[in-house]
């Protein structure tokens, strides 16, 4: 046997991370019968409360799938999670949302003000259908998920705290996994794959949509996956995480772009600057300054990548550009 063949044999015999992640990815790709697709109820899709982002998600968050929202600081990741929470609760009076808080970002007061001031939600009590759990490391989150599964399996009528859970939000996913990851930390990457598999199985088995909030890290000279050349950041957690969620949305600030006839172009090539804020008066008579953001699909298993939309965020409202232009 030649030396080249021996090296090749050793390479494929080595238990590298690549083969572990490839096996995990392939295990999630399974053929579906056409009848099953026709029988899937479209009403089960959960809206984010923002029409443009729902279009990117092919209607909204899909039960049985993991959706990732990542982006730069102050681009609206947590506010979008709050908006999705209230939209899900108002869609059905029996719906419940589980919010796993890993960095103390959940604010009951902010959620209440979003509910009271926004024009998108009806006047009804929804706060008692939000379940909040604080976990500050991946091991405590995994332990809680197993406990949640036990409750769902037992279906104890006297313990209905987790019945009708339609959405699970983890904010922030990066906070509990990033410390475990690194070039030489194969155990951390394996743990991430295992944890994601547990979440995916839970979502599929109990028809739950899972939304994870990720952070951003620098990407120089730019992010090669983004459709915008000025995007100099990318989702954290590395390449091994990239293909774990079903769809990966990325939020960025509108800094170097202008808009003309609904199309984003480079600065100084258009007449109307997208950085112009939009002032909106809500049902409480409060003027809200709406600032533009861009949401794009970086990766998707079931839809088209490279799609994007403009949305305006401010105070307690979310609008797409087409809703206000």
What this model shows, in words?
The chain is of the alpha/beta class and 325 residues long. The chain has a domain of 202 residues: Rossmann fold (3-Layer(aba) Sandwich), CATH 3.40.50.300. It has eleven helices and 15 strands. Strands 1, 2, 3, 4, 5, 8, 12, 13, 14 and 15 form a ten-stranded mixed β-sheet that branches. It has a three-stranded antiparallel β-sheet with strand order 10-9-11, with no helix packed on it. The N terminus is likely disordered. GO terms for molecular function: ATP binding; ATP-dependent DNA damage sensor activity; four-way junction DNA binding; hydrolase activity; single-stranded DNA binding. Belongs to the RecA family. RAD51 subfamily.
- The CATH class of the domain at 43-224 and 231-250 is identified as Alpha Beta
H-E string: HHHHEHEHEHEHHEEEHEEEEEEEEH
Our estimate of the beta-strand percent is 15-25%
Count of separate DSSP helical elements: 11
Taken from the alpha-carbon principal axes, the silhouette is globular
Overall helicity:
25-40%
Unreliable stretches (pLDDT < 50, length at least 5) are 1-26, 259-273
Rg, nearest Å? 21 Å
Mean pLDDT: 80
CATH superfamily of the domain at 43-224 and 231-250: P-loop containing nucleotide triphosphate hydrolases
Architecture of the domain at 43-224 and 231-250, CATH level 2? 3-Layer(aba) Sandwich
CATH topology of the domain at 43-224 and 231-250: Rossmann fold
**Total beta-strand segments:** 15
Distance between the termini: 69 Å
Query: What structural class do you assign from the helix and strand content?
Result: alpha/beta
Summarize the biggest pleated sheet: 10 strands, mixed
Organism: Glomus cerebriforme
Family: Belongs to the RecA family. RAD51 subfamily.
Subcellular location: Nucleus
Keywords: ATP-binding, DNA damage, DNA recombination, DNA repair, DNA-binding, Hydrolase, Nucleotide-binding, Nucleus
